[in-house]
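Quick one: structure tokens for this chain, please?
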Amino acid sequence: MSEAIHKRRILLVLGALVVPFVLLRLWLFITPNADFNVAGYNIHHLFTGLLLITVGGLPLTLFRGESRWLDAAAVVFGVGLSLALDEWVYLIATDGSNASYLLPVSFWGGLVMIALACAYVGMLLVIPRRGSGRKGERESG
């Protein structure tokens, strides 16, 4: 993967981590009782996030290359990770109610988790990359 594609994909993941967090927090602040219910079950966005992590993460793990399809998978992965991390502290530290989602512990917990994920992405960006990382393959170029 070229360095430009690599950096673009990193920016896509970073944007996909931050933008959904901000939009979701704004939406749920404005409409705090907006629930996603399926067949009588309240589906927290943690669970939706896990599905998106699976849908986006598997192609990124299994396929290599420079394609819009893999860029889209990176965005789907980042959105899913954002949704899951936003609720991680909330579901551990509160009773899981709609009112608890608006508590400071929920907001700051989500913000810290997103910030840690972004910092991790940044750390991975500065780690030197050599070749493809696969034994026995030649480097091109």
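Residues 136-141 have pLDDT under 50 and may be disordered.
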